[in-house]
Amino acid sequence: MYRQRRPRNDHDQLSLIAESESSDHNSSRPRPTYQPSHRPAAARRGQPQFATSNYASSTLSSSTGQTSNDLPEFEIPSYSSFIQDKSDLTRHQSIYSIISRKSIRSIISNPDIDTENAYSYYPHSQPERPKVEEEPVYSVQLQDFNPPPPESPVLVPAPLLPGEIPERQERRYKTKKVVQLTDDNLVLECPVPPHYLVKQTRQKGQEWEFMRYSAVTCDPDQFKAENFTLRPAMWKRETELFIVVTMYNENVNLFAETMHGIMKNIRHLASRNNSKTWGEGSWEKVVVCIVADGRKKCDTQVYNYLAAMGVYQEGVAKREVNGKPVEAHVYEYTTQVTIDPHMKIVESKNSDSGYVPVQMMFCLKEKNAKKLNSHRWFFNAFGPVIDPRVCVLLDVGTRPGPTSIYQLWKAFDLNSNVAGACGEIKPVKGALAKNLLNPLVAAQNFEYKMNNILDKPLESVIGYISVLPGAFSAYRYKALLTSPETPTEGPLISYFKGEKPTPDSGIFDANMYLAEDRILCFELVAKRNYAWTLRYVKAAWAETDVPDTVPELISQRRRWLNGTFFVALFSIFHFGKIYKSDHAYWRKLLFHLQLLYNILSIFFSWFAIANIYLTFYILANSLTFTENSPYGRSDIFKVVFIVLKYFYEFLVIIVFVLSMGNRPTGSKFLYTAAMFFFAFLMAYMTFCAIWLTYLGISHALAAGETSLDAVIKDPTFRNVILSLASTYGLYLFGSVLYLEPWHMVTSFVQYLCMMPSYVNVLNVYAFCNTHDVSWGTKGDTIDNMDLGAVKGSTKGGDSEVTVNMPTQEHDINATYLQAVASLRDKTKEEVQKRDAKTKQEDYYKAFRTRLVLLWCASNGLLVSIVSYSGTNQTGSYDTRSKTYLAFVLWSVAFLSAFRFVGSVAYIFLRLISGELRW
């Protein structure tokens, strides 16, 4: 083979040495030598070139005495002469070329050779051969040369010159490779890019040098049965933590936030050298699985992110294997690279950051099949193969704290009865808490905080957490599996029923599975013959983005509220399963207390729209009496009350109309305006409560009653202020007890103003859309081919198609006579029937209508009874209003006190266990 040597300096001459390639030629034959007239232009520094850049006009001297002048000269331009501009240089700088001894024979036997060989790697970009006159010419002299038939040249990549940067080129995969199927499955071991590998600490071995690709052609439930396997199982590694990240079409920045947080957690696990489980080399006990819901839905930058980690390679995936469509593409690689949210690549060889290798899996689903299907790939396909101890669930956009995953795992390690655990989810506040300037974010921040201070600790003490959020939670894999006694029942079986509803399932089940993680929690606690519990881990936290616009918030809460409502009913109706579990009697007693608490919560949730309206009605109407009106002007406040009352009712009607037929994104202004006016009404309601309290205390002092008992006996003070102070006072005290009081300062006012909108906008939209059980994804479309198809072709510049149609005279007549004869037949009128999909949609909408009518009727009846101004069997208006207001406000205070007791008990248990130290 001929190779071109680059001179050490500009004064050196270029030498081309012809080396023998085959042993069948006589070694005594003289070898050709080349003496260029001067250094070719193609050899200049920094310019890509062929291994041999010039062909020469040559003379051939044979043993017969033929001189060089007797032979024809041929000249072929060098590669550099093909480069017309800088863009051509970029496009062609990786062209492969070589002039071997066999190709020289081909050249001599065919002087009219063109440049096709040089551009065979890029057949689409063959240029016209330019005329070059200034290029140097090499003289070739061959003696005793008998050329065999020409053969195809061997293509060898020309090396990059020093300082030359390879640029991204159009990918073309021309190499064909015969691959043997593994158990009838397509499994490829693909070399990782050398440019990636050279920068890593570990470079030798199958795990580091190759990325494994599997084209999965079966359902997730058949993954193991179809002899598919995964690298951790092949290498017989025990998996302690199996982490899944589910994604749809999120951008690469959200993906990087989540992945970088996971990398920090695995680094922390490897740094715990005093642990029996973790420490150096413990990264082999962790597997990270990314499940993308739809190949065409995934952000293209995410592919680049994974490719930079060595996990993904473009051009490897196949759509079909032996006639079977591929359901998912599984890429496996142990990466040594982490990429932070600023897209800075941290490589193991050139960094002392302490990051360790991470076993990665990337499951790219061919079709979009929703999040529940992604979890089925994780639990039913990969879980049985890897057999992990603990499974951690994360959503893209959720960033776990640097030690949060360890804290979750620790809950399972300390208590063998823990089947599931979750941590605290915090809204992302941004730099200097700038996101809290948005009242929607601030209100949600307060809501999340109080849920993590009062609700989650209470449920953790009882042992049944109503929901372990799929964005950040963990499960013991063994607890999810079916038991031998009940092979047809189990948490995962119930969990995945919502993916493919059966004909027997109705709208109740469809709405219930909008909150499928709540079903999984109930099934774990109520599992027959087991005593599994759920735990809240305060030390584990994660940050996530919350909706910052009105349409996003409404759409999110539609699924949350409907799913929560129907799952709560499901847990109440199926509470009897608890008796078949193996829980202790004292814990079953706690479950009964929680059942009573849930029933009361559902009751107040059902009548929430009436409760908040009546609270406004009673407080605002109280200022219309002369003795209660500021400055003694009751007439002004009567007008204000009437105007605001009708305005309140008008806003509710608007929200109902919008919710029945308008998408939040299409009516953003009206929804936002409704929330703004409800916030104004809440502010007026607060003013009324404060003024009535002031009057109550003033009247008591004016009567000479200075004792505290006299003030408490005042009905207005007792029913309004004392109950509200109990509720919000417990909020403040609980926040201080958990050393997290700042949300009371930064977010309480926004939450207070948003309270009417939570009921009158979010609840109304959710109930008016119970027929909508979608997650916002479209189903696959199927083309009907009952009319046949035609295929076109081009001939002589004209387009033609081949069609089947009657052309014979007897065929045409037969069709005509048959049509005439059919006119005499009497046909029965066909009854129009609805297809299955239309029937289901009508059924869902009918259910929605009945539910909304029942909801409106019951709330309207309550409003009519309490707000009736006359005297009836229920007493006077004053008696009814005071009694009702006292019942509502003190019930809220009682529920808050119950939650507070559970919150304090949670702190006490943490102190006993040593988890918390003062």
From TrEMBL:
Keyword Transmembrane helix tagged: yes
Reaction(s) this enzyme catalyzes, per UniProt: [(1->4)-N-acetyl-beta-D-glucosaminyl](n) + UDP-N-acetyl-alpha-D-glucosamine = [(1->4)-N-acetyl-beta-D-glucosaminyl](n+1) + UDP + H(+)
Gene Ontology CC: cell septum; plasma membrane
Signal peptide: none
Region entry Disordered, spans: 1-72
Keyword terms, alphabetized: Cell membrane, Cell wall biogenesis/degradation, Glycosyltransferase, Membrane, Transferase, Transmembrane, Transmembrane helix
EC number: 2.4.1.16
A GO molecular-function descriptor: chitin synthase activity
Domain Chitin synthase N-terminal: start-end pairs: 174-240
One GO term of the biological process aspect: chitin biosynthetic process
Main location group: membrane
Location relative to the cell: Cell membrane
Function of the protein: Polymerizes chitin, a structural polymer of the cell wall and septum, by transferring the sugar moiety of UDP-GlcNAc to the non-reducing end of the growing chitin polymer.
PANTHER family tied to this protein: CHITIN SYNTHASE, CHITIN SYNTHASE 1
Name by which UniProt lists this protein: Chitin synthase
Species name: Entomortierella parvispora
